[in-house]
Design a protein that fits this description.
Elements: E1 4-9, H1 14-30, E2 33-38, H2 41-48, H3 57-74, H4 89-100, H5 104-117, H6 131-140, H7 145-152, H8 155-170, E3 178-181, E4 184-187, H9 192-202
Parallel strand pairs: 1-2
Antiparallel strand pairs: 1-3, 3-4
Helix pairs in contact: 1-3, 1-9, 2-8, 4-5, 4-7, 4-8, 5-6, 6-7
Length: 203
């Protein structure tokens, strides 16, 4: 056993939240490394010409039911935030800033918890609406909120998120969550069984 799973995600993605809640268990079973890759989901959708499910009323209603089923199936708490979708541009930049400090895993864990379990996602669509949630996540991981907010505004970090999203597109990604095991790509929370099989094969 062994290997690694690359996990491409955006904190706005409910299915990324669900996948994250199971990936640790899968990696532990397979003695695999989990590698986190923050990306910007909206940019992936725009490049691929994909409409978000919530933009199609019938599909949005079904997605809400399906999310409840998956959360119950996984035994994960989930409180669907309002408004949805919410802004994550600054949040994903903050995630990359934290990666440079060796704090991406705790930032991701606490942000998913705040946004998808505690109804603490950004409450508006302005950039400043992200500041409160980002600051709360920073406090939870023992980081200085002002430093994290400043880091998210750094031009180099902004460019890093663009490059990360562009790299994801170059590898064939078009949504989140996306997983790579070696060169094999899997899309969607419901492909985790295939991810684990590929880890078994690779190991």
């Amino acid at each position: 056993m062994g290997g690694r799973v690359e996990f491409l995600y955006d904190l706005v993605s409910p299915f990324s939240y669900l996948a994250y809640g199971r990936l640790g268990e899968i990696c532990a079973r397979q003695n695999a490394e989990l590698v986190l890759h923050p990306v910007l989901l909206g940019a992936l959708h725009d490049a691929a010409g994909i409409q978000a499910p919530v933009s199609i009323p019938a599909k949005g209603r079904y997605m809400n039911q399906d999310l409840k089923r998956w959360a119950e199936h996984y035994g994960l708490p989930m409180r669907f935030p309002e408004p949805f979708p919410f802004r994550t541009l600054k949040t994903m930049r903050a995630a990359l800033f934290c990666r440079g400090r060796g704090e991406l895993e705790p930032f991701t864990r606490e942000a998913f918890k705040l946004y998808w379990e505690e109804n603490g996602a950004p409450g508006g669509r302005e950039e400043s609406d992200e500041d409160g949630p980002i600051s709360e996540v920073a406090r939870r991981i023992g980081a200085d909120p002002e430093a994290v907010l400043a880091g998210a505004a750094d031009p180099e970090v902004k460019e890093e998120l663009k490059e990360a999203t562009s790299d994801a597109l170059d590898r064939g990604a078009f949504g989140a969550p996306t997983f790579f095991v070696g060169d094999e790509m899997f899309w969607g929370n419901d492909r985790l069984e295939f991810v684990e099989r590929e880890l078994e094969r690779a190991g």
